[in-house]
UniProtKB/TrEMBL annotation:
GO molecular function, one term: gluconate transmembrane transporter activity
UniProt record similarity statement: Belongs to the GntP permease family.
Top-level lineage group: Bacteria
Compartments where located: Cell membrane
The UniProt record lists the keyword Membrane: yes
Pfam families: GntP_permease (PF02447)
Designated name of the protein: Gluconate transporter
């Protein structure tokens, strides 16, 4: 009965947005309240769950998306994105640019959270698309597939790192296996799959599209790459520093503060104000006026993501994830497949990859403790399952849809299918490794 109620709620959400044309934020709130009532949540807890879901979602993403929009606008308007695009295009050519995007996404995806990588790379994707008249979805999917896989499969991202600890797995071995599985999954879901998406119409957000500048007006290659990728460098540096140098407890706390995504984006934005603005003859008032204008363009995205947080919280507090896990736990199948399946179904119902991974881990833990599955491979199997079939209850779905300005149908056909390919390819890689080792 729970599965049917969830399906009906999600179907109603899609219909409200696609056919009734209600704004997604309003539709999310209506369906969140309806779902809470149907799932038997006490009335005095419903508004609290909705508000908590919105607050939790915005607390982690508001600074990131708004500062990321300002940062992206500055990178685009200064010509830095155009310079980076020209360098990449000179190295690969138009026919192979999707491979270059995949490699860039994989490299920056290892240290960066998915949301940071997304808002950081959007100006670069759009600059390539507009300058060389390429398909936005065809260029973007390979990079976003790489970001998604690293987020779901590989430590030091939150869910796989927590699973390593919970299962008593080996961090280094899990990372090694993860690379072996992640690379083929990214290639299949990225450059290969994206070839079928070239005809999908897309008009990306105008805030991140700047008019072409003459070459002599562009910032230098080093300045462009360093300014645009400073968030990556900061996160890598703060991760490696305690591994190389001895730091006390206070030092670790300082590094934790510096490496938080909000602080990293803030520092990077202020540096870009100088390197791409003030030092190139622009006044501070001009820089801020242009940058802040980009926040207006992403406000609808922020509202939609906040609404998705309300629905996710209702599903979580109503015990949907635990009920689904209990229903699936008794299935007689290969433990690695079972872990993947539990994570995938919770992901489809709840929408959060992290919630799906951590919930599935608690359910599958007894099988690990009894030695029925390799803990390193189980981390990867659950991680792959937690990425399956992203749709309307996932904030990543709406980030992609709104930034690339796609229809619901085209978002399902591109983003949702790509995430599902990643999940299935990841499971296939885990099972293959399980035969070999």
């Amino acid at each position: 009965m729970t599965f049917l109620l969830i399906f009906l709620c999600l179907l109603a959400l899609v219909l409200l947005i696609s056919y009734v044309k209600i704004h997604p934020f309003i539709a999310f709130l209506v369906i969140a309240i309806l779902a809470a009532i149907l799932l038997g949540m006490p009335f005095d807890r419903i508004t609290g769950a909705v508000e908590k879901g919105i607050g939790d979602m915005l607390s982690s993403l508001l600074i990131l998306i708004s500062f990321g929009a300002m940062f992206g606008k500055l990178v685009a308007d200064s010509g830095a994105a155009q310079k980076i695009a020209s360098v990449l295009m000179g190295m690969t050519g138009p026919k192979n640019i999707h491979w270059a995007m995949m490699v860039v996404g994989f490299i920056i995806g290892i240290p960066l959270f998915y949301g940071v990588g997304f808002v950081l790379m959007v100006p670069l994707i759009f600059s390539v698309v507009y300058k060389y008249r390429l398909s936005a979805v065809g260029v973007g999917i390979p990079m976003l597939a790489a970001l998604s896989v690293t987020h779901g499969f590989l430590p030091p991202h939150p869910s796989p790192s927590a699973l390593v600890v919970q299962f008593g797995a080996d961090m280094g071995m899990t990372l090694l296996y993860g690379f072996a599985i992640a690379i083929p999954a990214i290639i299949i879901a990225g450059p290969i799959f994206s070839r079928s998406l070239l005809k999908i119409p897309s008009q990306p957000l105008a805030a991140f599209v700047a008019a072409d500048r003459p070459d002599q007006e562009l910032p230098g290659a080093f300045n462009s790459f360093f300014s645009a990728l400073l968030p990556v460098f900061l996160l890598i540096a703060t991760t490696l520093f305690p591994m190389v140098f001895a730091v006390g407890e206070k030092g670790l706390k300082i590094l934790a503060f510096i490496s938080s995504p909000s602080v990293v984006m803030m520092v990077s934005l202020f540096y870009a104000f100088c390197s791409l603005g003030l030092l190139r003859g622009n006044s501070l008032s001009q820089i801020i006026e242009r940058s802040v204008g980009a926040v207006k363009d992403v406000m609808p995205v922020i509202l939609i993501i906040a609404g998705s947080g309300a629905l996710k919280q209702v599903f979580t507090e109503s015990g949907v994830n635990a009920e689904i896990g209990a229903a699936l736990q008794g299935l007689n199948m290969e433990p690695l497949v079972l872990g993947w399946l539990i994570a995938a179904i919770i992901r489809i119902c709840v929408g959060s990859a992290t919630v799906a991974g951590l919930t599935a881990a608690g359910i599958i833990l007894p099988l690990i403790q009894s030695g029925q599955a390799d803990p390193n491979l189980m981390v990867l199997s659950i991680g792959a399952g937690s990425l399956a079939c992203s749709h309307v209850n996932d904030s990543g779905f709406w980030l992609f849809k709104e930034y690339f300005n796609l229809s619901m149908r085209d978002t399902f056909m591109s983003w949702s299918v790509m995430e599902s390919i990643v999940a299935v390819a990841g499971l296939a890689g885990v099972l293959l490794l399980n035969l070999i080792i």
